Amino acid sequence: MALNKSMHARNRYKDKPPDFAYLASKYPDFKQHVQINLTGRVSLNFKDPEAVRALTCTLLKEDFGLSIDIPLERLIPTVPLRLNYIHWVEDLIGPWDPARSALRRGIDIGASCIYPLLGATLNGWYFLATEVDDMCFNYAKKNVEQNNLSDLIKVVKVPQKTLLMDALKEESEIIYDFCMCNPPFFANQLEAKGVNSRNPRRPPPSSVNTGGITEIMAEGGELEFVKRIIHDSLQLKKRLRWYSCMLGKKCSLAPLKEELRIQGVPKVTHTEFCQGRTMRWALAWSFYDDVTVPSPPSKRRKLEKPRKPITFVVLAANIKELFLKASAVGSETVEGIAVITTWLEKILTDLKVQHKRVPCGKEEFSLFLTAIENSWVHLRRKKRDRVRQLREVPRASEDFIQAMEEEKPVPKEMEINPDCTKCPDESSPSRPAMYGAEPAVSESHHPDNSQDPMEEEGPEKKGRTEVLESVRGSFCATEELDSLEEVANTVAEREKNSQGAPGHYLFKCLINVRKEANDDAVVEMHWVEGQNRDLMNQLCTYLRNQIFRLVAS
Fold first, then answer.
1. Under CATH, which architecture does the 4-286 domain have?
2. Comparing 31-45, 434-448, 511-525, which segment has the lowest mean pLDDT?
């Protein structure tokens, strides 16, 4: 049985789920419904109505000493979920005060008498239990009598359309502490089967619907059913200290709270119950000023599980290779896991990721990272794209470059090459300009009244153009095509610097490098905060690949 850690703190099944194997060995009626797989694990098919009823009857007998007899057509509520409701009502009414009342009194609105049986057994509460049809009424009385609880539970039959008003006609002088209700969830059979009422993205129910027609369906569904209870409470008001009901749909909660607000009800609260994938919601309201209102659950219901760090392992043999690589390039001589940290710092510096060492334990090194921009995803592709763009820039002819390298005089016919890009300061009136037929004017000889074409462009475009012009000038000299990648990096760096430092960060994380007993090293990346955890995963993959490339190179 899947139980949720956010069940009520006093629920006995919160930390100790039922032992199916033990129950099967003790109760033959339950044993015939359990299944044992090849590994010896005992399980139960929650989509089998008879199996669910057998489990509920077994739990009521084993844990509460209750013997119940309910036909197959009737609803058997899941015990752990119903206990949540019982304990929440305990929170509503507070501890018992003998000076105020001899005993706690409650009203149960039609739920096969399960709540009265549990409430009377656990807390000694007195219940007025209402039933709407003859079958439920007869079985409820039988269950009360066979468990010797007739002095605490009174079962009455009420008309189909009535709820609280008719039940309290004969007891006009009694003040009840609370009422409980598990209303019919659905308006018709199609809705009960999930047609047009269940989000198609949700997984199918993990358990079967075991309710009878009068228990799971009512005109208007649970929304209209609870509104009828609200209208009854407006007439009864302080005849009950707390009115409550449990809801099967979260979408019913907001309109019911709005209805209570419109009617001016002073005290309103709600909560939610969890059991595995099953969720229920409860609503309560009161007309008393002296009642204590429990706080509703936090919006962040699910506690965040502690995230495991992202890790990769560097073998001891690879650590030695990294040490040799560091010695070959003249880096600071460090050994062990310190050499991994040194290489990580170098890679992070190349990526422009802010980092600093922080104190840590022995045989460990820690780096605190602040990533400002994504500089590691598709890094090689970005460089190739920049190189491809720069390859398209016009370049000096091979004869011209060879003549410059041999320091020979440039032939007359090679002095003006239409394929060679001239820098602005190399142009002259006797040479054609780079773009069009207009002569290029040297920057040092601009007339005072002339307008520089750069002034018509924005500062960003102007800076980019200056960078490209300087690159073109270098191509006209002795730069080889193999150095294009280095030049492309220069262009990217200048463009990045021209944009200014961003006023935000992508994420912050902590890198921890620690030594294992077998001299291997484990690199861990711990998430701290930021916009997207996937970006940290990508950076971890990049760092790991770079480390392994260093070893393999």
1. 3-Layer(aba) Sandwich (3.40)
2. 434-448
Residue 405: per-residue pLDDT: 57
Judged by phi (left if over 0) then psi (alpha if -120 to 50, else beta), residue 200 lies in alpha
**Are the beta carbons of 405 and 477 closer than 8 angstroms?**
no
Tokens 């007899």 belong to 69
- In this prediction, residue 269 carries a pLDDT of 95
pTM over 0.70: no
At 330, the pLDDT band (50, 70, 90 cuts) reads: low
Count how many residues are written for the chain: 553
Instruction: Indicate the burial class of 259 (C-beta count within 10 angstroms; 0-12, 13-18, 19 or more).
Output: middle
Work out the angle between the directed axes of helices 484-498 and 459-475 (0-180°, nearest 10): 160
Could you tell me the residue ranges of all domains in the chain? 4-286, 310-376+503-552
Q: Is 537 annotated as belonging to a binding site?
A: no
Chain centroid to CA 304: how far? 8
Residue 386 annotated as lining a ligand binding site: no
CA distance 293 to 307: 35
Residue 182 counted as an annotated binding residue: yes
Is 215 a residue whose pLDDT tops 80?
no
Rounded Cα–Cα distance for residues 180 and 241 (Å): 12
Contact (Cβ atoms closer than 8 angstroms) between residue 122 and residue 64: yes
User: Among 160, 152, 103, which Cα is nearest to 131's?
Assistant: 160
* Three-state secondary structure string covering 66-97: CCCCCCCCCCCCCHHHHHHHHHHHHHHHCCCC
CATH class of 310-376+503-552: alpha beta
